[in-house]
Design a protein that fits this description.
2 copies of one chain form a homodimer. Chain A has about 130 residues and is mainly beta. Chain A is built from 1 helix and 11 strands.
């Protein structure tokens, strides 16, 4: 079996909500690409049991409710949200809000990049 | 201490490479936003010891070397890459390649979304 899986989603500026865990057979994260239409909010406040979330705002404006605070969101905002945080998110009345949300188990990462990566054999056509 | 951290990166269509682990104090993942200029490749082939990677191509075209295969990449491609896979990535001569790369520990996710999320108290201003 190949050591990877690839899916082609097409134009990410026009997608609805897509969750990738099952389609990519992920084992360390859940990754979703989300769009809230203008004026629309997630209809509930929630927290998590185990998972830290990372939000990456791709386009649009909105509001992030976090433990009673409300943060104005815009393109290029990135957030870490701890499992216990009570959260909700809403698109501004005048723009849809597109964002990536990553769930991973809090405190599960032991090492990364230079400490996890290792040089490997292989010669791409351009080398 | 707040149960979240937020950073504003600005226009993600013009960023260089940004790594978020340290700035967001992430504990379950490393998330980077990357840009390879037209014609440029990561200058080495690498694998990982523990971490699964997810790639999300935001814009541009390129090539992904994976264990001797080469996949043509375009906007909206998403890939899971297992730790052991020997990988390299290159932007096409005619376009820069912008992508998100997520590292998380393979097999670390126990549950997600409906099985990890729990309803929480709180009343955003719009509810």
């Amino acid at each position: 079996m190949a050591n990877y899986k690839r899916i082609t989603l097409g134009d990410i500026k026009t997608l609805g909500r897509i969750t990738l865990h099952n389609d990519l057979a992920l084992t360390g994260s859940e990754v979703s690409i989300n769009e809230l239409p203008a004026g629309v909010a997630v209809p509930f406040v929630h927290a998590h049991q185990q998972n830290e979330e990372v939000y990456l705002i791709l386009s649009g404006k909105g509001l992030f409710y976090l433990d009673g605070e409300e943060l104005a969101l815009c393109e290029g905002d990135v957030l870490r949200v701890d499992p216990v945080a009570k959260r909700c998110i809403k698109a501004d009345a005048g723009s849809s809000l597109r964002f990536v949300c990553i769930q991973s188990k809090a405190n599960s990462l032991n090492q990364f990049t230079e400490t996890d990566g290792v040089p490997a054999e292989g010669t791409p056509s351009w080398m």
